[in-house]
Every structure is written in C-alpha cells, then in structure tokens.
Amino acid sequence: MSLAHGRHFLSIPGPSVMPDRVLNAMHQAAPNIYEGDIITLTAEVFDNLAKIGRTTEAKPLIYMANGHGAWEASLTNTFSRGDTALVLFTGRFARGWAEQAERLGINVQSIDFGPRSPVDPQQVEDALRADTAGKIRAVMMVQTDTATSVLNDVPAVRAAIDAAGHSALLMVDCIASFACDAFEMDAWGVDVMVTGSQKGLMTPPGLGMNYVGPRALESRERADLATPYWDWKPRCNPQVYYQQFCGTAPTHHLFGLHAATSMILEEGIENVWARHVTLSKAVHAAVEAWGQGGPLECNIAEPAHRSRAVTSIRTGSIDANALRRYCEDELGLTLGVGLPLGSPVMGGREEGVFRIGHMGHLSPPMILGTLASIETALTALNMPHGQGAVAAAAAVIAGH
Fold first, then answer.
1. How high is the mean pLDDT of the chain?
2. In a 3-state reduction of DSSP, which class is residue 193?
3. Is the dihedral of CA 266, 272, 278, 283 positive or negative?
4. Cβ atoms of 75 and 101 closer than 8 Å
5. pLDDT value at position 348?
6. pLDDT in tens, 221-250
7. Could you tell me which of 114, 87, 83 has the C-alpha nearest to residue 98?
8. pLDDT digits (tens, 9 = 90+) for 102-132
9. How many C-beta atoms lie closer than 10 Å to residue 341's C-beta?
10. H-helix or E-strand containing 194?
11. Which of 93, 134, 215, 336 could crosslink 12 through cysteines, CB 3.0-4.6 Å?
C-alpha cells in the first residue's frame, strides 16, 4: 500500500515550492493592461527586484521566457558576430550558455574546472593576461551550477578580471542561486546577471530576467545580434508601458512575482540568505551521516563550495533511480534527477546521482521531512547507509 497521499512534496531544484500567497495572488481576473493598478504593481515589482539584487545602478528586465531565453537576451545585447567570450565551466549550465553563444556566431574560449570543483580565479586572471589583443568581450560564469551544485566565488572572479587589467564584462547566471545565495550586483562589480522566476523567487516558470549594469548597456550600442524582442534598449527606457515587455505584459506572473518579492523583502534578504545557509547545512550533515555507512556523498566535497540552493548527491553502488521512484511512489516525495555533470550533450540523466532542492519557500519541517523520507527509502530498500542523518540535520537547525 502506498502512503503517497495528502499533499505531494516537490524537493527538486526548481520549479520550487510556491507559497499559497503567490498562488492566491495569481488567482484573479485579467486586469486592464493599458492603465491603472497593473502599471503601479509592475513598478513595484521592478523596485523589489532591484532591492533583492542589491543594486541601484543596474536595471532589472523581465522577459516572458525561461532561463534559456534570458541567456539569449544577455548574449544578443552584449556581443557582435565574431566576438569572443571566456566561459567558465563548472558543470552543465555554463556549458549550455556557451553552446547558445556559439550558435549565435560568438567565439567561445573556455576553461573547464570539472564537475566537482569551483572556478579557480587565478586561471581566469592568467587567461585574461594572455589576451593581449583584448579580444575577450566578457567572462561568463554561473554562481551555482544546478547539475553539480557547486557554488562559485563571483567577487573573486571580478577581482581576477581587475587584476589582469582587462575590460571584459562579468556576466553571471544566477538562475539557481538568486534569492538563495548571497548576491551583491553593485558591490561585486557584476555587469550582467541572468535569473528566472521559478527557483528562489518562488513563482511559476515563465519569466526570464536580465539585470543590466551601466557598462553592459554601453556594450549594447555596438552589439549587432540584438533583435526586436530581446533588445534591452526599449525595455530599459520604455516610452509606454507595453515596451517593458515588447507587447502584452505577463500579468498573472507579475501578480505572483509581486507577492513573492514582497515576501522576501518582508523577511529581509539577509535573513533569506541565512535561512538557506542553515537548511543547506542540515542537508549536508545528513548526507555526511549517510556516507558513514554507505556510498552516498555530496558531489562537492568542500563545504565552502557547496550551493545553498541545491545539493547533488553521488550514490555509488546505490541505484539512484530506484531510490527516487520509491520516494515518489510510496512516500509522495519527488527528488531531483541527476543531470549530466559535464557532458556536452544537453538533456539525459546522470546515473548514480540525485539532487535535493532546498530553495525558496522552505522551513525546517519541510527539509527534515525530506531527509526522513529519504532515510525511510534507504531502509525499506536495504540500501547501505549510515545512521543518525536526521538527528545530525536537526542538530544543525537547533544550533543556528
């Protein structure tokens, strides 16, 4: 008999759990899209996004798109055909961004740090110093790679660019990390940031975002890849409301995003970051306890380099798919599949890996319930694992 009744719990790294307040905000009739309350609400959404991104200099822009659309917007507004980008691979998603750049006619120079290590800033500095002709227009990286769950040091990369005396823009994908890991757009010297609605921002998939700093906006003037929909210029300086979206506004997503960003600011962004630190450490403590009597281990060995939004777990001889299926079918818990950690092929799954998403609208009961359910599955399936994982996680939370 399956116990998977009641409310099913989604513990994947996005789409994340959506608060009732967000869902309720979206449950209303279509508004007047030409004047009135929707214009005021939209202005508040952009103001909230700027506060969450810690910027007074950059402009947040919203596209009706997923993260791939936000990638394309960032590329078409900063590059011309034949330009060069330096892309830092730490798993799957910077690689995907680079593949998109190549299809647009951008030359990609890459440094691959492997699927279990963060970016090494010294190698970035060395590559930029070697670029004596100044061909590299931008350095592109992810803050958190959703496949590997590595957390990269964004300000250290900015420091490497500055130490090399290079003019390259710093472009950062924060799709998995935004409103989970600390991020300081202005203080860290980020020129372009890319994110989406469906993870730390707790809103349904469908909105991709670019944060555009002053240097990036200057680069738009020479970029020949910009097309009408993706173009930053009318969105940055709209003469009428609809230009902010190149057409009809995504009204109900805006209702939800307004509620979500308000919740984040009411909690306080520093408190949101701190909550994610504690809950992620609880997950890591549980995995380490399981690993004392079995093959489970965090993909990223060094705690300082682990994401606060997602944890990728290597299962060794344990069948990760069987574990996930039991959790879903018998317990009502959906865990994240393992994504290719460094494969050049987008799509497919990484065998021997599963992921726990701990981003957005989460509390200790939700995390402890996830961990207890995984331990239940390990026990029911006679999979080797150490004991005391839930207690270890509880101790982290109790000591926060």
1. 96
2. strand
3. positive
4. yes
5. 60
6. 999 999 999 999 999 999 999 999 999 999
7. 87
8. 999 999 999 999 999 999 999 999 999 999 9
9. 21
10. strand 192-196
11. 336
Task: Assess whether 261 and 273 both reside in one domain.
Answer: no
Query: What residues does 89 pair with on adjacent strands?
Result: 112
Token pair, residue 303, equals 């705690």
Q: pLDDT-derived band of residue 347, with 50, 70 and 90 as boundaries?
A: low
Q: Provide the residue range defining the domain that includes 122.
A: 20-266
Residue at 66: amino acid letter: N
* Domain at 324, CATH number: 3.90.1150.10
358 within some domain: yes
Q: Residue 284 and residue 218: Cα distance in Å, rounded? A: 42
| Cβ neighbours of residue 145 closer than 8 Å, sequence gap 6 or more | 90, 91, 92, 93, 94, 152, 176, 307
Helix (H, G, I), strand (E, B) or coil at 336: strand
Tell me: pLDDT of 346 over 70. Answer: no
Q: Domain count of the chain?
A: 2
For residues 224 and 291, membership in a common domain is answered with: no
Helix (H) or strand (E) holding 334: strand 333-337
Report the alpha-carbon distance of residue 386 to residue 375 in Å, rounded: 10
Question: Bridge partners of 110?
Answer: 87
**CA-to-CA dists, residue 311 to 38, 211, 284, angstroms:** 38, 26, 8
Task: Tell me if 237 is assigned to some domain.
Answer: yes
Is the confidence at residue 265, as pLDDT, over 80? yes
Domain annotation covers residue 1: no
DSSP 26-42: H-SPPPPSSSSHHHHHH
361 and 322 fall within a common domain: yes
CA 88 vs CA 108, 141, 143, 144, 309: distances in Å: 10, 5, 11, 12, 20
The amino acid that residue 78 corresponds to is T
Q: Under a CB-based contact definition with an 8 Å cutoff, are residues 244 and 226 in contact? A: no
Query: pTM value?
Result: 0.96
**Amino acid (one-letter) located at 90:** T
Residue with tokens 């029911």: 380
pLDDT band at residue 344 using 50, 70 and 90 as cut-offs: low
331 & 187 share domain:
no
State the chain's maximal CA–CA distance in angstroms: 67
